[in-house]
Amino acid sequence: MNKIWNRLFLEERPSIGLSFFRIFVALTVGLHVIPSFFHLDDNYLSGAFKTFNTDFFPIWFINGVQQSPDWLVIAFVVGFYVTWFFFLIGLFAQISCVLMTACCYYFYALNCFHIGTLSWDILLVTLFLMCISPYHGDYFSIDALRRADIDAYQKPRPFFTQRLLQLQIASTFFFTGLYKITGEGNWITGNPIYYLMNYPTQGVTKNFLLKEWMAVHPHFCHIVGLMIVCTEMSLPFFLFYPKTRRAAIVLGLCWHALLVLTLDVPAIFFFLFPAQLLLFIHPQAIVDWINVKRRINEQSPRAKVIYDGSCGFCRSSVRALEVMDLFKKLEYVPGDQSLKEMRLELPDGKNYGGFYAFRRLTWILPMLYVMVPIVYFPGAGIVGPLVYGWIARHRYLFPVFYACKMGDCVR
Amino acid sequence: MNLQLRNKLISIFVIVWLGVFYYESTCVYYLQPLFKRELPRMKFLFPPAGWVMFYNIEDNFGYAEVYGVKDGNPQLIDPHQILQTRAIGYDNINRNALVTVLSPGMDQSFCPYLKRRFPYFEKFLVTDVEYPQLTEEPFDRRQEVVYQCAGSQAYE
């Protein structure tokens, strides 16, 4: 019994999957909440049209939140933006998650009309689990760069957060199916899909290709309905059974794609749930795959990053590159002080310097992919070299965490 | 932290979490009917009714239509003008979000909002549109005024 319990929740496994999942949680929260800020006066300020979820919040809490003056609402909006962005980039990942979640609760209690859906309640459960553990900041994060731990991607961590998230989505599938055929559910006695196809435009269904055909084929709709229930109730078991896991993940992803294409469903369905399904991939399998790629790349000709090896800032920057270099695509060569800027030499003989070297790196390192639109933004080719040049000229003056630990951040 | 202590803390959390999670997931539709009484619920975290996504879809359908009245002439107001907040990837109006305004007591909040959003109109009619049997009688459309919102004087 102890062995099973350890294996299920206490065993240490790499947290790279959880770190990846953090990005999707942040995107889901942002895409769900931020649009409601575009019309603050309609949604949250005094004079807004508000509804309250008294089943979710106690009355005293809603009453307390309703006392908020407009300046406090705006302060929470700013607070949300800051903590959400920190959570997205993984800066102080756990504390930013806690503060962002607090802001989410505040806006939910202030007015549940736009953001309060069943999917939102599900997201809050996910956020709670993310709040109790700091492991989602281990990789794909600024925290990882701050810690400068090259092995961050394979750091073993207790597996319980990821396991509980797996159980959450599996249970959501199972209970969603179960509710449809028991209690007040009518998916066996009625023909819900057929009804949905005949609803007017306000009725959740998008105008997809087969809609009109399905609206006049009730038997087909009934079969589809029963298949949906069977899929929802069996998917959790397929997800936990190793031999069917891969197929179940693919089925789950297709399932959510189908939902998005056919129904007007909240952002959570196409950002959170598919990513949550990917948490079923064993993290050690991901790390093993990364390590195989690293070994292959190490034995092949690699791009060379040539930097000023006598400058602390440069060394710490290269250390950050090493953390980000998940697949070991780069080789780091310390140069001397005469080097005015970082150089990048590609195996095909192409050479880049300074800002242009950095710009090329954004294509090579997965964690820098997000920088691609910024470094190629019109005008970046003019501003970028100027900023890079200024930093390069003052590189000996920058205090940097890692360099300072080495005692040579300022020279 | 000591490894044994850490594992104990994690184990306690996991047991409590799983207990509360499955209790809340089954409370409304399974445990309460079983025990034939209302059971205590946990606020602040779980969906109050359980995981009830599309669990009961009937052949009838209802939604709200709002009319603005000017010089005695009622004009249908586009629901996207009433609720201007756009969600990403889906349309809140198509999720029938506006039907909420038909709930009892909503006029207290909705009428001042309409007045502020549409000062042009003298009054508003909030109506309930019902299709009692969509598949059998698709053209049987019933509409009634649920409440009216008075002119600007009442809210200024």
Describe what this molecule looks like in 3D.
The complex is a heterodimer of chains A (411) and B (156). By secondary structure, chain A is mainly α. Chain A contains 20 helices and six strands. The longest helix of chain A is centred in the middle third of the chain and has 23 residues, at 218-240. Chain A starts with a helix and ends in a 6-residue tail after the last helix. With 156 residues, chain B is an alpha+beta fold. A four-stranded antiparallel sheet of chain B has the order 2-1-3-4. In chain B, strand 1 (61-70) and strand 2 (73-76) form a beta hairpin. The chains are: A mainly alpha (411), B alpha+beta (156). The interface between A and B is large, with 71 and 65 residues.
What's the tally of helices of chain B?
3
How are the strands ordered across the major sheet of chain B? 2-1-3-4
Name the shape of chain B in a single word.
elongated
Give the class of chain B from helix and strand content and strand pairing: alpha+beta
| Overall 3D form of chain A | globular
**Annotation, overall tally of beta strands of chain B:** 4
For the biggest sheet of chain A, the summary is: 4 strands, mixed
Helix-strand makeup class of chain A:
mainly alpha
Task: Report the sheet-strand fraction of chain A.
Answer: 5-15%
Q: Give the chain pair forming the largest contact, with residue counts.
A: A-B, 71 and 65 residues
Fold topology:
The complex is a heterodimer of chains A (411) and B (156).
Chain A: H1 2-10, E1 12-14, H2 16-37, H3 40-43, H4 59-66, H5 70-89, H6 93-110, H7 118-131, H8 142-147, E2 156-158, H9 160-181, H10 192-198, H11 211-214, H12 218-240, H13 242-262, H14 268-278, H15 283-299, E3 303-308, H16 312-324, E4 330-335, E5 343-345, E6 351-353, H17 354-364, H18 372-375, H19 380-393, H20 401-405
Parallel strand pairs in A: 3-4
Antiparallel strand pairs in A: 1-2, 3-5, 5-6
Chain B: H1 3-35, E1 61-70, E2 73-76, H2 79-82, H3 107-117, E3 123-131, E4 142-149
Antiparallel strand pairs in B: 1-2, 1-3, 3-4
